[in-house]
Amino acid sequence: MRLRPYKPCDGDIIAGWLTDEKTFSMWCAGRYAYPLTGEQINDRFDMMRDNPNEFMMTALDDNGAPVGYFLLRNADWEAQSIHMGFIVIDAARRSKGCGKQMLTLAKKYCFEILSLKRITLGVFHINPRAIDCYESVGFIPCGTEDEPFIYNGREWKVIEMECLSE
Predict the structure, then answer these.
(1) Cβ contact 134:161 at 8 Å
(2) Which terminus of the chain, N or C, has less C-beta within 10 A?
(3) 91: which DSSP letter?
């Protein structure tokens, strides 16, 4: 697996990985409209294209096909910190180690290439597979957000996690 900057041709592929509304909602917490389209992802790309503190990244398999995606935002160069979000793996490749592999590469990129010391992310408490994946690569819980996300009348708490460079 390797990482490269997101390209607009990735949008439709990534949108195809989020086909049920609950998984989609766990991914974006209402920041996109369901059903997701490549155009929506590309609109986000266009909005942040010139922002020096945001990066969209695509993970590729050994054949160059997209298998994962995430966004890095709110880079704080003085505090040496960045927030990771919108993390998703191709549905056909989940539970096969791809998420762990992508996160390991993302950490390497943030710590070694960007020379940052801290990566944060948020995950819903109802997503134990994601929590386990994040913990397996060194993220630890560091708090919860005050405002829960409401999905179909149920409250989803956001667990904040962080990973520090070694």
Answers:
(1) yes
(2) C
(3) G
Please state, in angstroms and rounded to a whole number, the distance separating the CA atoms of residues 47 and 57.
Answer: 15
| Edge-to-edge strands, sheet with 118-124 | 2-5, 55-60, 66-76, 81-89, 118-124, 158-164, 140-144
Q: Amino acid identity, residue 142?
A: C
- CB atoms under 10 Å from CB of 70, counted, come to 23
Q: Tell me the longest C-alpha to C-alpha distance in the chain.
A: 42
Cα dihedral 117→66→64→103 (10° resolution): 20
Residue 38 CA, distance from chain mean position: 16
**Which residues of the chain, if any, have pLDDT below 70?**
none
pLDDT at 166: 82
Cα separation of the two ends of the chain = 23
- Would the pTM count as exceeding 0.85? yes
In angstroms, the CA 112 to CA 75 distance is: 15
Instruction: Please state, for a pLDDT cut of 90, what percent of the chain lies above it.
Output: 99
Q: For 70-106, what is each residue's pLDDT tens digit?
A: 999 999 999 999 999 999 999 999 999 999 999 999 9
Q: Does domain 2-164 have CATH number 3.40.630.30?
A: yes
